Amino acid sequence: QHRHLLELLKRTTVHGESNSALIIGPRGSGKTTLLNHVLKDLREMEQVRENLLEDPFLSGLLQTNDKVALKEITRQLQLENVVGDKVFGSFAENLAFLLEALRKGDRSSSCPILFVLDEFDLFVHHKNQTLLYNLFDISQSAQTPVTVIGLTCRQDILELLEKRVKSRFSHRQIYLMNSFDFKQYIKIFKKQLYLPAEFPDESFAQKWNNNVQHLSEDKTVQDVLQNLFHHTKDLRSLHLLLMLASSAVTVHHPLLTAADLQEASRQHSTDSKANIVHGLSVLEICLIIAMKHLNEVYDGEPFNFQMVYNEFQKFIQRKAHSMYNFEKPVVMKAFEHLLQLELVQPLERPSARAQREFLLMKLLLDSSQIMDALQVYPNCPTDVKQWAASSLSWL
Amino acid sequence: MNTRQQSKLIYSWYGKPLNSDRKLRTSQYKGILITSESSKTETCIQLGDFILVEGMNADQPYVAQLVDLYEDGAQHKRAVVQWFCRLEEIPQNKRKLLKREIPAQEVFFDQVLGYDTDIAAETIIKSIMVLPLHLGEELPIITLNKEQTFYVRQSWDGKCFKVLSPDTFSKLKEANKKRGVITNSSKAFTPSDILTPVKKETESVVRSATKPKNADMEIESKHSTSKSSLAKERHSQRVANNDIKTPTARKKLELNSPTRSKAKLLGCEVLGLLDDDCDAIAPLEPSAPKRKVKFTGEILGSPPKIPCSNDKSKQTSETAEHCQRSSDTMRLSPYTKVKDFHEKDRNLDEEDDDILLVGYQKPSSQMPVLTPRSRRTCAQKTSALIAEQISMLDQEDFSAGSDSSYSSSSEEEEDDDDDDDEPCTPEKNPKSSKIFSTPKSSRKSTLHTPAKTLKKTPSQGTPRTPRTPRNATPEIPRRVQAAQEPASVLEEARLRLHVSAIPESLPCREEEFQDIYNFVESKLIDGTGGCMYISGVPGTGKTATVHEVIRCLQQAAENEELPPFQFVEINGMKLTDPHQAYVQILEFLTGQKVTATHAAVLLAKLFSTPGPKRKTTVLIVDELDLLWTRKQNVMYNLFDWPTQKHSKLIILAIANTMDLPERIMMNRVASRLGLTRMSFQPYTYKQLQQIVSSRLKGVKAFEEDAVQLVSRKVAALSGDARRCLDICRRATEICESARQKRAPEIVRMAHVTEAIDEMFSSPYVSAIRNASLHEQIFLKAILAEFRRAGVEEATVQQIYHHYVALCRVEGLQSPTVSEIMAICSRLGACRLLLVEASNKYLHMRVRLNLSQDDVIYALREE
């Protein structure tokens, strides 16, 4: 892939041939890294550097419409209508200007331009796909040599292009996949942790690297990594894990240990909603359990506050001794707190007319999550635990 | 009688019919009178005079010589003219043939055939001067009426420039001479005009009015004797020639016109304004007493149609009289005015300079159509700087040396007033130059004043002027190193296979080519308008064919097989807004830059009125469907113009869908589009093969079978020629990279197959195979859930239960819900799954973006 892209860009710069290509790959598969790498290599080549390769870099997240994108292009190209980093003129003028500028050039005399469109899929949603059409059209006609490179993670990107835009695109797609296996993953892990040779304290670097080597052979570490590898092949998550682990390194604790990694992995994979449940009061827990029962009885149908309250009342009546009988407004307050934490979600927007007790709600927790959370909940009354565990709510 | 709404010019014959043809019921005349109602001025134009004729572009009227005047059977006044063409009318590529700088005032004797020389007399604007010159001859120094004097050196017959033949030269000379006589004779009737209007207010007015007339002749003689300098002579001649009628109205102004200081002030104002590039006579207004403002306003209100020659000479005389007053000499005749000039040159240097500048620059202002407000502000600003300026002018005057110095400085070609005010203005007059530099104001004025003439451009183009973004030339920097030429056969082949490479001929589109060619050709020959709608899927060569047709037609027009035509192309995709189409068309046609609504008005006027000398316009509208608006007025207008009688507009509309007119157009638009349709069928494999091999003619790079394979593949899918070429190009690349080990070879089947696979392979399967274990399990869980529910949609919660079960089977640690959500969103980002907005958390609905079978296939094979 690297070679392919390099060849492509070289041809644009050296021969003045226009091209277009898409780099497609899931997130974290190194699309931008690949491109930057290729550009770096390219700049080192003599012929190319003399040709003054310009590359406007546009990101779909920043250039949210064609107007902004056009201004950005003209600004980055430093064309003549740029006055001190600002581009004047209307959208139509700018477009006409840019097209005119690009039309004037020809294969042999003007210097090639490389357009990089990051988050290419967002450019597709611009009105009429004017920008894409024009860029591809230029790359397909005898004008200034340009290469348009789009980066995207969407596999179905071609179907999003309008047919005439699609026809102008050269259908050169470079797919990037995380196709490495676990051994390579371990290797990457080591490479990431190794200190570079130019690290000032050589003896420490030596020690550190030995430790990393040791770690990579450790069983628990391998388990942690295996787990992560199974979850995602995205290298960014590995970085995140290593970041968490290595932040535990201090003066007194100079080397990474397997325990550090395990801790990091645990942090990395905890369930966010279950965490919230840990911080709830007993009353709120009770409400959640009531909701869980309702969900089981009505098979996932939405419920309202009144139903939850009734369920809660039934529980209180049976086990009156274990719980203080809260008044309805207090229960309501607790319920609203759950709403704010987004553990429950209303089906529709609350309107002024509808009574709040009868708004239909859905629980955003799975029963297994509730059970897990209850297991670790400190000082939970046994009755409540029993109530939660019993499959029949009226027991 | 034709009356115009704006200035109400009345055209009437001068004199009796010379001879009339009973049969044709035409009668010829020797002159035409143009009367402006609002200002009550009259001009007489005679046979042989040079005239300006209304053209497409209000800034640049056509130049012509009046050859014949007659009234036809239907009582329409007609004129037969000999055209001159300006540099702007000559195609860009032909201008190079001249190999020299063409001053703005130079015109060419037009020998192009096919222009309509018979025009309506009502399109005549005014009379001007055209002086024949020999090729080597320097342009004479022009002192007055710069705007109205043109020069002829060469003739232009559509292909090349020739030196004027001796007899045309002498004819033109003759015409000029005759003109002198004519003006004299015209004077005979002028006094009567003066008496007719309402201008007789006081006796003095009348006196002042009549006097100049009598003096006119005197000037001519006296001048040649008294002033020997060439400039002066020209000046006086011009005065004599153009002063057909004396501006009685003006005289009145002068009576209550300013004192000495005012004259100065006026001069400065004019200066300032000229800096500002708003060359106008108008500045007189704001400073003058209120009554006067009103009056001049009235005169100025009818700008373009007034014979400007009159106007101008009036102004000179007027300003001259201002100076008279300032020097306290109470003389009224123009003759003395001129003399006065001279005297004052000696005496009052600073004042004289003012006057000179006023006198000479005024003529340059052709049509004072400035908006009064901007004028006033300019004037105010500049008047604040009077004192400063005067001292500057003093200096300048000394260095130049009054009268004769003026002529010497003006010797530098024609840009004399530009030359003149440039040295003094930009650096010495900070305020006015500031005015100039503010892009907004200057832009405004350029937009609103059609009076922005030739002269303006050179002065604006001077390097000293600050670069506004508008002047920026769109250009990509040149590359330092020349592009490498293709070295090997494969590279050569790749170059030829690039879509941008223009083949010599378009194979497989001969029939369509012929159809379009015939259509346009017939319309061109007839001089009528028409529409044609061309449809076809992308990449079938619609645009290429049309361009080829245009190229052939242009070739034919150059060889004079066809009348010349203008070619305009707009592309719906390259417009930001459908209404911008007007702007682009107008810019192509006339070079004006205006707003969309204004452009629409101008274009409608252009196409609906019979214009002389207008070429047929061939308009290509690419991607027509994007010009669709809710009211469809853009399309409606586009297709309405060709149906009008005088439009001479041929439209070739290109779009993808065959039934576009029926589908999205309103009935009235579709009916105007007409029924001339043509659809481009997708290429068959044989045609694609032919296209590729025709491009590769002479280059042995491809196996015969390989080309066939590509074309069959593409033809089966889309018939898109672009795709075909791209695959071939990719195949050469693959071949090249494979070649490195072995000897040079040609592209074989294997390479082509690889290229095709690369382009058409579905990315999904490989994406799934490269997904992580849990992602794959998640997909399995989705499949299981779908099978259970029988619906192709599931919530994450339902999938989660299956997921946990599957994990238990696999012996894996079951992940938390957060991790599940992460996996889900990752797959969603790749669009393997279609997911809802993520705020629904567990109740988020999930759907597969590819068929279940694909997923099963991809998952099974590990």
From TrEMBL, chain A:
GO terms for molecular function: ATP binding; DNA replication origin binding. One of its GO terms (cellular component) is nuclear origin of replication recognition complex. SMART domains: AAA (SM00382). The keyword Lyase does not apply. InterPro entries: AAA+_ATPase, AAA_16, ORC4, ORC4_C, P-loop_NTPase. Keywords: ATP-binding, DNA replication, DNA-binding, Nucleotide-binding, Nucleus. Signal peptide: none annotated. It is found in: Nucleus. Belongs to the ORC4 family. Component of ORC, a complex composed of at least 6 subunits: ORC1, ORC2, ORC3, ORC4, ORC5 and ORC6. ORC is regulated in a cell-cycle dependent manner. It is sequentially assembled at the exit from anaphase of mitosis and disassembled as cells enter S phase. Interacts with DBF4. Interacts with POLQ. This is Origin recognition complex subunit 4. The gene is Orc4.
UniProtKB/TrEMBL annotation, chain B:
Transmembrane segments: none annotated. Belongs to the CDC6/cdc18 family. GO terms for molecular function: ATP binding; ATP hydrolysis activity; chromatin binding; DNA replication origin binding; metal ion binding. This is Origin recognition complex subunit 1. Residues 213-223, 311-325 have a biased composition (Basic and acidic residues). GO terms for biological process: DNA replication initiation; mitotic DNA replication checkpoint signaling. One of its GO terms (cellular component) is nuclear origin of replication recognition complex. PANTHER family: CELL DIVISION CONTROL PROTEIN 6-RELATED, ORIGIN RECOGNITION COMPLEX SUBUNIT 1. Its main location: nucleus. Residues 201-256, 303-329, 393-484 are annotated as: Disordered. InterPro entries: AAA+_ATPase, AAA_lid_10, ATPase_AAA_core, BAH_dom, BAH_sf, Cdc6_C, ORC1/CDC6, P-loop_NTPase. Pfam families: AAA, AAA_lid_10, BAH, WHD_Cdc6.
